[in-house]
């Protein structure tokens, strides 16, 4: 996303509250591009998709440079707040709490949005939810939160994970109870939220993927490998942050065992705190020449990273959905994934891939060989099954459902009692967005 012209915040003008020709949506984002993570990308796609449908979309997020301002990009108005670097995650910036609440009050007063949509429960969105409530604006909240994704960055010692995770979940649930409608990307994530004490229904709405951008192109595999400087041999790919919770070291540890049977390589797309350790691990195992660190791949080239591969592997245990896995499936790749959190929703054993017990490198090796040794015809059938499963996650269907949710919450102005999500068995509940496990 290329930032548009920047202008001073005070030049924001109030929308006409009586103009209902299009929906006005204010989206809160504690992470947004150029941040590289699933929640940031989903929020960007949601905002751009709504704007492309003619809605008046505003996003309030941290400044990418530190200085506040307004940017216009892809039909979306970005209200960038003053920010500082995140000490435990140097590639990201955050907004300090001081002054955020007052700014959000003024912004909501000027824009008069029909709905506000929070994407987390952190600094910006905490204020988005509270100010939405106080203004009588319906509040939708989508949860992308997993404490496991923060432990490594915050350097939380392993013995404290349960305690810190419990406190973090209680804080998240408290904020979520202030919203009128709560969604999360998968049913597994919805069940998790219920298990952490959230006592109202949660709707599973897929983050969605662009099926037109990520589609099978097996005939271009050799050309795609050349694009990234990869030798033309069998390739396992992983796309995502090279951070601790992704457990990429398990894939690297499996590689020497797989190489006893197959002539292949591993391509890692992304950057992160563990890159140096992963390079050292590959060298210590004697496979440095078979592990290719492709770094950050621009969005326009990302589909080719999947086209270059024969198989997608993911070992993470804290995935609420895994957009990268869905993109790989949409490209027609078989998948080998850890049997943890939402990943089992995306893998049907022996149909489009295999699951393995997290941490079991021997089983991971066996599952990789099951796919790679299956033969071209069988692998093609697994890739076709992946594509069929990915079709249920068309981002246009996700946009359809969010438009419906906004319409459902919009007519009622808040009276101090949150609007409840649809009760199971009601017509509204039966419109739940389908997920791959359905």
SSE layout and pairings?
Elements: E1 24-29, H1 38-52, E2 56-62, E3 69-73, E4 76-81, E5 84-86, E6 89-94, H2 100-111, E7 115-118, H3 123-135, E8 139-142, H4 148-151, H5 161-176, E9 181-184, H6 187-195, E10 203-204, H7 221-227, E11 234-239, H8 248-259, E12 264-269, H9 275-284, E13 291-295, H10 302-307, E14 311-314, H11 323-330, E15 335-338, E16 353-356, H12 361-372, H13 376-390, H14 395-409, H15 427-430
Parallel strand pairs: 1-2, 1-7, 2-4, 7-8, 8-9, 9-10, 11-12, 11-14, 12-13, 14-15, 15-16
Antiparallel strand pairs: 3-4, 5-6
Helix pairs in contact: 1-14, 2-3, 8-12, 11-13
Structural class: alpha/beta
- Tell me the CATH superfamily of the largest domain: Glycogen Phosphorylase B
- Unreliable stretches covering 5 or more consecutive residues: 1-19, 412-438
What would you say the CATH architecture of the largest domain is? 3-Layer(aba) Sandwich
Beta content: 15-25%
Can you list the strand order of the major beta sheet? 3-4-2-1-7-8-9-10
N- to C-terminal separation? Answer: 34 Å
């Amino acid at each position: 996303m290329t930032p548009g012209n920047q202008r001073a915040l005070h030049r924001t003008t109030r929308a006409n509250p009586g103009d209902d020709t299009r929906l006005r949506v204010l989206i809160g984002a504690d992470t947004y591009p150029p941040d590289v993570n699933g929640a940031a990308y989903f929020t960007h796609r949601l905002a751009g998709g709504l704007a492309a449908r003619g809605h008046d979309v505003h996003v309030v997020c941290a400044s990418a440079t530190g200085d506040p301002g307004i940017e216009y990009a892809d039909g979306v108005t970005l209200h960038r707040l003053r920010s500082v670097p995140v000490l435990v995650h140097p590639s990201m910036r955050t907004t300090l709490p001081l002054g955020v609440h007052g700014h959000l009050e003024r912004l909501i007063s000027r824009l008069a949005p029909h709905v506000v949509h929070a994407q987390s429960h952190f600094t910006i969105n905490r204020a988005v939810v509270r100010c939405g409530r106080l203004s009588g604006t319906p509040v939708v909240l989508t949860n992308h939160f997993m404490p496991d994704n923060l432990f490594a960055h915050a350097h939380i010692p392993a013995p404290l994970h349960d305690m810190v995770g419990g406190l973090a979940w209680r804080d998240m649930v408290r904020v979520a109870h202030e919203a009128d409608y709560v969604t999360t990307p998968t049913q597994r994530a919805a069940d998790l939220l219920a298990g952490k004490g959230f006592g109202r229904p949660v709707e599973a709405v897929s983050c969605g993927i662009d099926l037109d951008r990520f589609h099978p192109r097996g005939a271009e595999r050799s050309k795609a490998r050349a694009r990234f400087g990869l030798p033309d041999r069998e390739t396992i790919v992983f796309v995502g942050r090279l951070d601790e919770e992704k457990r990429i070291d398990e894939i690297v540890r499996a590689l020497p065992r797989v190489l006893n049977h197959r002539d292949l390589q591993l391509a890692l797309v992304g950057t992160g705190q563990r890159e140096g350790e992963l390079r050292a691990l590959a060298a210590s195992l004697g496979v440095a020449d078979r592990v290719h660190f492709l770094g950050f791949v621009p969005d326009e080239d990302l589909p080719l990273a999947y086209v270059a591969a024969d198989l997608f592997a993911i070992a993470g245990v804290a995935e609420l959905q895994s957009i990268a896995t869905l993109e790989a499936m949409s490209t027609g790749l078989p998948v080998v994934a850890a049997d943890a959190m939402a990943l089992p929703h995306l893998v049907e054993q022996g149909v489009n891939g295999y699951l393995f017990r997290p941490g079991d490198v021997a089983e991971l090796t066996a599952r990789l060989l099951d796919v790679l040794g299956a033969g071209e015809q069988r692998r093609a059938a697994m890739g076709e099954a992946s594509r069929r499963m990915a079709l249920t996650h068309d981002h246009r269907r996700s946009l359809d459902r969010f438009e419906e949710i906004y319409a459902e919450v919009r007519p009622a102005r808040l009276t101090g009692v949150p609007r409840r999500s649809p009760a199971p068995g009601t017509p509204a509940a039966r419109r739940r967005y389908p997920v791959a496990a359905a």
